[in-house]
Write a structure and sequence with these properties.
By secondary structure, the chain is an alpha/beta fold. It has one domain: Alpha/Beta hydrolase fold, catalytic domain (Rossmann fold, 3-Layer(aba) Sandwich), CATH 3.40.50. Helix content is about 35%, strand content about 20%. The strands form two sheets. The chain has a six-stranded mixed beta sheet, with helices on both faces. Helix 1 links the parallel strand 3 (about 30-35) and strand 4. The chain is globular, with a radius of gyration of 16 Å.
């Protein structure tokens, strides 16, 4: 079963989250963080996949503070719109959208009664990294091609839970030399690099790479099985 519910942040802000429930008692929970395209059909399918694997999945609408109801496709126009929304969210005063992610983590923990992991893609990968380093209640984090997490001050952050990171060696948004530098700065993070481009997990994008997506999902599920049990 899956539907949108209202979540509430510490500052009282109400925002939607897509919740997918497993058929049986959850073996834990996974928060799924969107790309710059909103909680669209792809992100909902990712959440559904984790529910099918036995986890309660929660995908918070991390654009809601600047624009509600965002559900974009992958055209150039949609990409430009999503990038503008991401820029607007990043410009919010601290803690910005992180308090909404914390609310999703709290809901996932309370509803599932188990440990909580987090996974995110592109901008959501960056937010996953920040969540692993700054938020409470997480037992594992898996950023996919986190745009920006290998740049600036981000590699200097210290995660408070185990982290596995997935990158593509053909990703022109995340140069491979910055991935290598991130690995050196974060020896405790399990980093995997695939022969793939940015967005390789999304089967609605031209950059989709079925083999890389399958292997990354297998590794992620094994990682969650280890740390959310």
């Amino acid at each position: 079963m899956a539907n949108f519910i209202d979540l509430q942040s510490a500052d009282g802000f109400l925002f939607p989250g897509y919740v997918a429930e497993p058929a049986a008692k959850p073996k834990g929970a996974v928060v799924v963080l969107q790309e710059i395209f909103g909680v669209n059909s792809h992100i909902r399918s990712v959440a559904d996949g984790y529910a099918a694997a036995g986890y309660l999945a929660v995908a918070p609408a991390t654009f809601h503070r600047v624009k509600p109801g965002v559900d974009l496709d992958y055209t150039d126009a949609d990409m430009n719109a999503g990038f503008a929304l991401k820029t607007a969210v990043e410009a919010l005063p601290a803690p910005g959208v992180l308090q909404d992610i914390q609310a999703a983590i709290n809901h996932a923990a309370q509803t599932s009664g188990g440990k909580v992991g987090i996974v995110g893609f592109c901008w959501g990968g960056l937010l996953t990294w920040r969540a692993a380093c700054t938020l409470s209640g997480l037992s594992a984090a898996v950023p996919y091609y986190g745009g920006g997490m290998t740049a600036g001050d981000e590699p200097a952050r210290q995660p408070a839970c185990p982290v596995m990171a997935h990158f593509g060696n053909q990703d022109h948004w995340i140069p491979l030399d910055t991935v290598e530098a991130f690995k050196k700065a974060q020896p405790g993070v399990e980093v995997h690099v695939y022969d793939a481009n940015h967005g390789f997990n999304c089967d609605q994008r031209g950059s989709y790479n079925e083999a890389a997506a399958k292997l990354a999902k297998e590794r992620t599920l094994a990682f969650f099985a280890q740390h959310l049990a």
